[in-house]
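Trying the structure run again after the queue cleared.
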Amino acid sequence: NLAVGFEDIDGFSESEIYAVGLKGEIWFYDGSKWNKLDSPTNLNLSSIRCTPDGFAYAAGDFGIVIRGRANRWEIVEQSVTKESFTSLEYAFGSVFLAVHGNGLFQLLNQEFRKLIPELDKSITTYNLHYNDGILLSVGEEDIVTFDGEHWMRLQDPELEL
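Done. Tokens:
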């Protein structure tokens, strides 16, 4: 029995919600029922964001990035990495992507590039979140923020166990 299921969910409204998951699955909720959509990939999709440019972007295994809306989805070609994306976020007019380990990437105006935050040392990455003008990157050993111009490392909080 093969595993299938949702990995992430996002929407433009209560009547336009998308979920992505294992084996490239894309599902669409129209406010009353879920429908499975045709996907341009069978690779696992781990993250999706509906963006102000009118597209939903999803990313996952082996550097796959797709873009679409409703029944029209396409692969976003990129040759920068084959690492698996664990997180995707929209901020500052572009798509940011993270991998598990050490990798942040940006898709801006159809140009895909690896980001190297100007910090004292390289950072670990895994999950991204954007809110109130700040992009947050959380990795196994690091928490960094980006305000659209500058990266800043947050100091480790002291945890009492």
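The first strand starts at residue 6 and ends at 13. Worth checking whether this holds up in the mutant runs.
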